[in-house]
Design goal:
Elements (H helix, E strand, L loop, with lengths): L1 H11 L9 H9 L3 H4 L8 H7 L6 H4 L7 E2 L5 H5 L4 E9 L11 H13 L4 E3 L1 H17 L17 H4 L6 E6 L3 E8 L4 E9 L9 E10 L4 E10 L7 H8 L14 E7 L7 H21 L13 E2 L26 E6 L10 E6 L3 E2 L4 E7 L4 H18 L3 E3 L18 E5 L5 H10 L2 E9 L26 E8 L4 E7 L5 E7 L10 H17 L9
Parallel strand pairs: 1-3, 10-13
Antiparallel strand pairs: 2-6, 3-4, 4-5, 5-6, 7-8, 9-14, 9-15, 11-12, 12-14, 16-20, 17-18, 18-19, 19-20
Length: 546
């Protein structure tokens, strides 16, 4: 009995696929599904060539194909109607008065909505694939094989026929990600865009399909191999399509929320070490010119055209002796309080409507860095580049040095860039937290802001159990708020994390965005890391710990 049970369990297990066994791959190639079709038509000779050569295609490891814009597979209406497989969702975007705003026609707006989905890994389903889906549906019904369709309750009796059947005057687009499918249609009579979304119920990330990969990566800063970590999820996270669609359609509030996966370019101003009050006042005067330029960039219909940015100098700065970590009474990072406004990009008569969001620090302090961010969803790279060049040109005229900052410096994920590993300096002795601040000041680091870090980096530190950070009741370490500092050269950022017992972990983030042989950023970062490690190792216990 025991062996028979084991045999039945083994028979129910999914057959393992061996890419080196031609019979296995031939069997997979014969099946027709979205995952099977997602990449098949990128081969120059078409599917015939793809089927002819079974086995791994090693060239794809060094020259991976770009995800095609289109896919030639679409499930049948019966498959989409299956309540045990797909979850149905529907919403509308109202277009009243849009003809007086940003898009020449509703077709232009609809195409922009399609483009947004393509940038988020959706593929456009070809018309032939939709027709093939209808043909398969008819054949399935005719042959009586439609046994999976639920007959008890139809969650979308009115909308489902419109998923595939074309109606005169109605424009439709079909998009697919395999486990997520969207059908977008514009009806000129109702002046609305209908979005029908189908989400596969089984497409949920769990322990079985979330993979953590640890590897050693050579650091050009420390010139040593450092452990790095990346997390891979089978399914993408849910996306706020309703919010994004209304944003594209001209919603007044254009604030880009976390989770929209918008594009971003970030810059910073780093003050010099002032030798006199006159030099500090001159720096403030230069910044005020930049602020006036940013105010002129705001859209004319924006009622609050003046940017209210308080300026803090050595004359009005309130100082105290508290450690930076004691000021962090909230789990909000530096980007949460930024001033945000939208800027419409220059356009010709036939150019589409494009705009960007600019986010700036809410206050300007002559002893801190100052960040300027460009975020965009609806903009071409060429026009964004033009806008960035104008900003650089203005900063040069004003005498300001604008430095590109990497995204990692505001990210909770220290391993955001898979090929840029951070540097860790661990101080396991208690009572050196204030001394670390003194060392950073001696090495010409200035305050950059508050960051929130994922505790995942602890898995890459030897004997990480020596540090005690706040935990949830489940035992999982909470996200870690910490002050961040930047060197006046802009070559290196240091994130300082202090645990409950005043032990410190310093995280060095190289400014790879701005590094070049001319500015010698890599050499500067390497020397700073060596000096910092040596100086904190010699620190005395300058605090009384309980």
């Amino acid at each position: 009995p025991h062996s028979s049970v084991k045999g039945s369990i083994a028979s129910r297990r999914k057959k393992a696929f061996n890419p080196f066994r031609q019979s296995d791959e031939d069997e997979v190639l014969a099946k027709r599904s979205h995952n099977r079709r997602r990449w098949s038509h990128v081969f120059p000779a078409g599917e015939v060539e793809f089927k002819r050569h079974a086995g791994p295609i090693w060239n794809s490891l060094t020259s991976p194909a770009i995800l095609p814009l289109s896919v030639d597979y679409f499930p049948t209406p019966q498959e989409l109607r299956d309540e045990s497989t797909f979850q149905f969702n529907f919403y509308q975007v109202t277009l009243g008065g849009i003809e007086n705003k940003h898009y020449a026609t509703h077709a232009d707006l609809l195409m922009e909505m399609v483009r947004q989905r393509v940038t988020q890994d959706f593929q456009i389903v070809t018309a032939a694939a939709v027709a093939e889906s209808e043909r398969r549906a008819v054949e399935t019904q005719r042959e009586g094989r439609n046994t999976r369709t639920s007959r008890s309750y139809d969650p979308f009796p009115r909308l489902l026929p419109s998923v595939t059947h074309e109606t005169p005057g109605i424009t439709k687009h079909y998009l697919s990600m395999g486990h997520r499918i969207q059908v977008m249609s514009y009806n000129p009579n109702s002046d609305t865009i209908d979005i029908v979304a189908f989400n596969r119920k089984s497409a949920q990330n769990d322990k079985e399909n979330v993979y953590t990969y640890k590897f050693l990566l050579y650091s050009k800063v420390t010139e040593q191999y450092t452990q790095s970590i990346q997390t891979f999820k089978k399914y993408s996270e849910p996306y706020k399509w309703n919010r994004v669609d209304n944003l594209i359609c001209g919603e007044e509030d254009r604030t880009m929320d976390v989770g929209m996966r918008f594009r971003r370019v970030m810059y910073g101003l780093i003050p010099e070490a002032f030798k006199s009050f006159e030099a500090e006042e001159e720096y403030v005067s230069k910044f005020q010119k930049l602020l006036s330029y940013l105010e002129r960039m705001r859209e004319k219909e924006d009622p609050a055209s003046k940017l209210d940015v308080p300026i803090v100098t050595s004359k009005n700065r309130i100082t105290d002796n508290k450690d930076d970590i004691t000021r962090m009474t909230t789990r909000r990072d530096m980007t949460d309080s930024m001033i945000r406004f939208s800027v419409q990009l220059l356009r010709g008569k036939k150019d589409p409507f494009e705009w960007i969001e600019i986010a700036i620090d809410p206050s300007f302090d002559t002893c801190k860095s100052y960040r300027i961010m460009f975020n965009w969803l609806v903009a071409s790279s060429a026009k964004v580049e033009t806008q960035l060049q104008l900003l650089h040109r203005r900063c040069t005229q004003f005498g300001l040095k604008l430095i590109s900052f990497p995204q990692t410096t505001v990210s909770w994920n220290l391993f955001l860039h898979a090929l840029a590993v951070p540097t860790f300096i661990c101080i396991r002795e208690k009572g050196k937290s204030k001394g670390v601040n003194d060392v950073l000041r001696q090495l010409d680091f200035i305050y950059d802001g508050i960051t929130i870090s994922s505790p995942q980096f602890l898995e890459c530190i030897d004997k990480s159990e020596d540090f005690s950070f706040p935990r949830y009741r489940s035992g999982k370490v909470k996200s870690i708020p910490s002050p961040q500092f930047v060197h006046r050269s802009g070559a290196l950022f240091i994130r300082k994390m202090t645990d409950r017992y005043k032990k410190v972990i310093l995280v060095g983030i190289e400014n790879y965005r701005h590094a070049s042989p001319e500015n010698k950023f890599r050499e500067i970062a390497r020397n700073l890391c060596e000096e910092l490690s040596e100086m904190v190792g010699k620190l005395d216990f300058d605090e009384i710990t309980e």
